[in-house]
Specification:
The complex is a heterodimer. Chain A is α+β, with helices and mostly antiparallel strands. Chain A has a single domain, classed as Winged helix-like DNA-binding domain superfamily/Winged helix DNA-binding domain (Arc Repressor Mutant, subunit A), CATH 1.10.10. Chain A has helices at residues 8-20, 26-37, 43-56, 82-100, 104-110; strands at 59-66, 74-80. In chain A, helix 1 (8-20) packs across helix 2 and helix 2 (26-37) packs across helix 3. Chain A is elongated. In chain A, 31% of the residues are buried. Chain B is α+β, with helices and mostly antiparallel strands. Chain B has five domains: 4-71; 87-132 and 367-499, no CATH class; 142-352, no CATH class; 510-539 and 745-879, no CATH class; 556-731, no CATH class. In chain B, strand 8 and strand 9 form a beta hairpin. The longest helix of chain B is centred in the middle third of the chain and has 38 residues, at 414-451. The A-B interface holds A 25-27, 30-31, 42-45, 47-48, 51-52, 63, 66-76 and B 2-6, 32-41, 43-44, 60-67, 69-70. Chain A: This is Helix-turn-helix transcriptional regulator. Chain A: Residues 24-89 form the Transcription regulator PadR N-terminal domain. Chain A: InterPro entries: Tscrpt_reg_PadR_N (IPR005149), WH-like_DNA-bd_sf (IPR036388), WH_DNA-bd_sf (IPR036390). Chain A: It comes from Spirosoma profusum.
């Protein structure tokens, strides 16, 4: 199965790209993840994950516009491909099925 | 890289060092997005939690990019031409450049080739000098025994040794030596076998010699001299006598007096050994047996007439042995000799050739000075040639600048340009090396003649090739480095836009170079002139007798002496000869120096050493000596058999005001001085004449001196004399020498130095002129536009010419001011060596300076006139 080559961090990054589309690039992804998880996330880690996902064909990228904060440098914007979307759905389906099988009394014990 | 926001808000800048670090490790194609991300994040952080925190975090963020996917460089987008393709292109361009500027190429390659050729010649010469005597296997262990003596306050050093010293060394100091070998000096004798007669030079020497000197035996064994009355001959002597027949066991007669048996033939010794003229060896015992004076000297410590060579025992230190045997003579020679403070020491073989001069008992070098001198000159000439090469290359840089600009614009990186110029200079250097080899091959015969050597190019020696090629590569790299680094650093934009200009001081190194070159050249020219003037000075010295048409023959058999009167009468009757006489020493040397003379008024401390020459009555008339006082020997006075003629130096030495009529005593003998002659130059023409006594000899003399009838031409006279000579001495050779030719040989060393010095001076000038030419053309090119403008504004050709030449004149004057004191100092020192010496006149310096200036103007004018004659329209059109 394809899913085996999707790491946990990569999955989160892929999700973030989907959520932040169409303006997803490493800085806002890192900020978003930091905000959501509370852990510090470096752009380096995100960028590396993005590169890997692009290599696997889950993402495509193009260079966007330059801004003053970036010292006049352009940013690389990412969008999820159809393959990427399907994979996300697959992952989610697996998880949902598993969630659904957890007995309600056990769920109660956790909360 | 332009950065707008950096200038607007300085505190908003992230740490620059971190950026720089990132640029180092991060792949270049990712720089833009990565740096952009980092900076943007930084701004976000700075707004949220302050600049200080953001800066700290920034470092961590940068560190997070240390991952293989960011470090890995992207493969080149465009196809990379292979190195071979590029190299082919470089070579093509190089050849096109060489072909397009033929004049420059010729100067560039020619100059370098000449410099290399000179370096090679000098290298060969030095190699030859340093390998002198290394033919002998025991090179490191052989030494000659020498002694110093102090007479009348002068300490002199010489190789002449008394015979009993050998026995002393063997018995008392035997442990230190493997061999102790007594030898005579190299003597010429008449060897004959059947009808064949040859005059050959050889030694009486003890039988261990062939072993000690590791002679290569072609026939017989090294112990051949153990046999009494034997002879070993060199290969060439063997061939002359016996052709292809076996020489062993044949009997050769020496001077027609006694026969010796050939017991060995050895390979001819190479010319760069001390014994290169050792054509035969006869056992020492023969010398003792046939000559009474040698026999009588066997126990005489005061007869310094022999040589001793030793080979050290293994593991013995030469200096220690030398110190040990210091008093070997003093302890045995008795009181009479102790006055001279004789000290014995060993002169090792490796010093024989290069360190042969002694002054006041101290070794002061010798030939080694010339090895150093020529070595330094060689390095200089080569260096000058290399720097010239670099200069000419950079001077043309502006012509190549456009090419560099285009190459850079179409994508050449700096490394490629560097390798282009390197390969170009290597190509040129390789051509120069090939040319240099050809040049050396062509010059070598002439150089050999001048340097009195038989050097060959060492084609088959790997070391030679290694040195040659290594040196070529080195020169290529050094010479190519400047243009390569300099030209490749041009900015393409500036070059192509035409705003490219070389700095004000770009020509400074070139100017320094010209000064150095001309300093060397001027020094060499002054040196050459002084050397030749010194030779001329000595040649012009009055020699005290008449040389023209005077010849002498060495006789080793008494045949002529025994019938001398008849011989003389017949010669004079033949009309070929005007006078003839015998003498003990040749006219061009003094063979006997004796002490033990006494006279009234002699200072008891004065050591009475005189050159003593036995002659016959007509000697004076034959050679034409000139009287200052008194009269010549005459047969009319019976008492003349105990008369003496002395020279001026002797009269002065003895302190006699009116020498004629005074008595000189030698033991029981009493001689009356009948005449005083003007000093004759018999030994070195640079030294004052030695105090000399002439007396009437009763013994068979060594030389027959003959004055040719001046009305006859020389060759005709010689053939007539030869016939009569052979009639009286049929068993000998008529081996005559002309006095003037022998005298001229005294100048050989100085003439050789003079010729070599002039050879190098010419080359130095040549190479200097190349450098000058390069600089002049560079300047002319630089100022083309200026000259154009000046001409438009009305400058005459003369104006332009003087404008361009002025700078060079200043350089030459500076060079001259440096060179003159250097030359004055060194040549002054050199002349100190000579008692009779020329002066360092100011006009030599002035003349040389003027000459250098003239050559400079000539060289520079070629370029400056060319620049001045150019139509200003042409030079200004391109604006």
């Amino acid at each position: 199965m394809r899913r085996s080559d999707l790491g946990e961090f990569e999955e989160v990054v892929l999700l973030a790209v989907a959520a932040l589309s169409p303006g997803a690039y490493s800085v806002i992804i890192a900020e978003e993840l930091e905000h959501e998880t509370g852990n510090s996330v470096s752009t380096g880690a995100v960028h590396a994950a993005l590169q890997r996902l692009e290599q696997k064909g889950y993402l495509t990228s193009h260079l966007g516009e330059a801004t003053a904060e970036r010292g006049g440098r352009r940013k690389r914007l990412f969008t999820v491909t159809a393959l990427g979307g399907r994979i996300l759905q697959d992952v989610r389906a697996v998880r949902n099925r598993l969630w659904d099988r957890i007995l309600p009394n056990i769920r109660l014990e956790w909360s | 890289m332009p950065c707008l926001y950096k200038q607007t808000n300085k505190t908003m800048t992230p740490p620059r060092l971190a950026d720089r670090l990132l640029r180092l490790f991060c792949a270049p194609h990712l720089h833009e997005e990565v740096l952009g991300d980092l900076h943007e994040r930084y701004v976000v952080r700075a707004k949220r939690s302050g600049v200080a925190k953001a800066r700290k975090r920034y470092w961590l963020d940068v560190a997070a990019y240390i991952r293989p996917e960011f470090i890995k460089r992207r493969p080149q987008e465009y196809p990379n031409p292979t190195n071979m393709t590029m190299l082919r292109n470089y070579l093509k361009i190089a050849f096109r450049n060489l072909a397009r500027q033929k004049g420059y190429s010729f100067i560039n390659i020619g100059g370098l080739a000449v410099g290399m050729a000179v370096a090679m010649l000098i290298g060969l010469w030095i190699y030859d000098e340093l390998t002198f005597d290394t033919y002998h296997k025991n090179y490191d262990r052989i030494a000659q025994v020498m002694q110093t003596q102090t007479i009348n306050g002068n300490t002199s050093t010489f190789a002449a040794i008394p015979i009993p010293l050998a026995a002393e060394l063997r018995t008392k100091y035997g442990d230190n030596f493997k061999h102790v070998v007594l030898s005579s000096w190299a003597e010429g004798h008449l060897l004959s076998f059947g009808n064949k007669k040859f005059w050959r030079v050889g030694n009486y020497i003890e039988p261990e010699a062939p072993d000690m000197f590791s002679l290569k035996m072609l026939k017989g064994t090294k112990s051949g001299l153990q046999e009494p009355y034997s002879i070993m001959i060199s290969e060439s002597v063997a061939r002359a006598f016996f052709g292809t027949a076996d020489p062993l066991g044949k009997l050769i007669k020496i001077d027609n007096q006694f026969a010796v048996k050939v017991t060995g033939v050895y390979e001819d010794l190479p010319y760069n050994t001390r014994f290169n003229n050792l054509e035969y060896m006869v056992p020492w015992q023969v010398n003792v047996a046939i000559r009474d004076w040698v026999k009588n000297s066997q126990q005489k410590w005061d007869n310094n007439s022999f040589q001793i060579y030793v080979q050290l025992a293994d593991k013995v230190d030469l200096d220690q042995v030398s110190a040990k045997i210091k008093d070997a003579k003093l302890a045995n020679a008795g009181k009479e000799q102790a006055k001279f403070k004789p000290e014995i020491f060993l002169q090792p073989m490796r010093n024989w050739h290069l360190y042969s001069e002694f002054k006041n008992g101290v070794n002061v070098g010798g030939q080694i000075q010339f090895v150093w001198l020529f070595g330094i000159i060689g390095v200089f000439v080569l260096l000058l040639a290399c720097i010239n090469f670099m200069n000419l290359s950079t001077a043309r840089s502006e012509k190549r600048a456009k090419e560099v600009g285009i190459r850079k614009a179409v994508g050449s990186v700096r490394m490629q340009l560097i390798s282009q110029f390197m390969s170009e200079s290597l190509l040129v250097v390789c051509i120069a090396f090939g040319l240099a080899l050809v040049l050396v091959q062509l010059i070598l015969p002439y150089f050999n003649e001048v340097a009195a050597k038989q050097m060959t190019l060492l084609w088959s020696t790997p070391v030679f090739w290694l040195l040659g090629i290594g040196f070529t590569l080195l020169t290529g790299l050094i010479a190519g480095s400047y243009p390569a680094l300099y030209l490749s650093a041009f900015q393409p934009l500036k070059v192509l836009k035409g705003t490219f200009r070389v700095g004000r001081f770009a020509s400074l190194p070139r100017q320094v170079l010209v000064v150095v070159q001309f300093t060397v050249s001027v020094t060499l020219i002054i040196g050459t002139i002084i050397v030749f003037r010194q030779i001329q000075f000595a040649k012009n010295r009055p020699i005290g007798y008449s040389r023209s048409g005077l010849l002498y023959v060495q006789t080793t058999t008494p045949e002529i002496h025994n019938h001398f009167d008849a011989f003389r009468a017949e010669l004079i009757q033949s009309g070929a000869v005007s006078e003839i006489a015998e003498s003990e020493s040749p006219l061009t040397g003094i063979w006997t120096v004796n002490g033990g003379f006494d006279w009234d008024g002699k200072d008891p401390d004065q050591q009475p050493d005189f050159a003593v020459i036995g002659v016959t009555h007509d000697f004076g008339k034959t050679i034409g000596w000139q009287f200052k006082e008194g009269r010549d020997f005459s047969k009319k006075f019976g008492t003349d058999s105990t008369a003496m003629v002395i020279n001026e130096a002797a009269a002065k030495f003895m302190g006699l005001k009116e020498p004629v009529g005074k008595i000189i005593r030698e033991g029981d003998l009493r001689y009356k001085i009948v005449g005083v002659i003007k000093d004759m130059v018999m030994e070195s023409p640079y030294e004052p004449a030695r105090q000399t006594l002439f007396y009437i000899s009763r013994f068979p003399s060594n030389f027959v001196n003959i004055r040719i009838n001046p009305n006859l031409n020389a060759s005709e006279a010689v053939s007539k004399i030869g016939a009569i000579y052979q009639k009286y001495a049929p068993s000998t050779l008529f081996d005559y020498k002309f006095a003037d030719q022998e005298y001229a040989k005294k100048f050989a060393v100085e003439e050789r130095i003079g010729t070599l010095a002039s050879f190098f001076a010419v080359l130095a000038i040549f190479i200097s002129c190349l450098g000058l030419f390069g600089l002049a053309s560079y300047v002319a090119e630089q100022r083309t536009k200026e000259i154009g403008v000046r001409k438009v504004l009305g400058a005459s050709i003369l104006n332009v010419w003087s404008l361009l030449s002025k700078d060079f004149v200043v350089l030459i004057i500076i060079a001259f001011c440096i060179a003159a004191p250097i030359a004055w100092y060194f040549l002054g020192n050199w002349l100190q060596k000579y008692q009779y010496r020329t002066e360092l006149s100011w006009w030599i310096f002035a003349g040389t300076g003027a000459g250098a200036l003239f050559i400079t103007l000539l060289t520079v004018s070629f370029q400056s006139l060319k620049a001045a004659l150019v139509n200003p329209v042409k030079s200004l059109r391109s604006e």
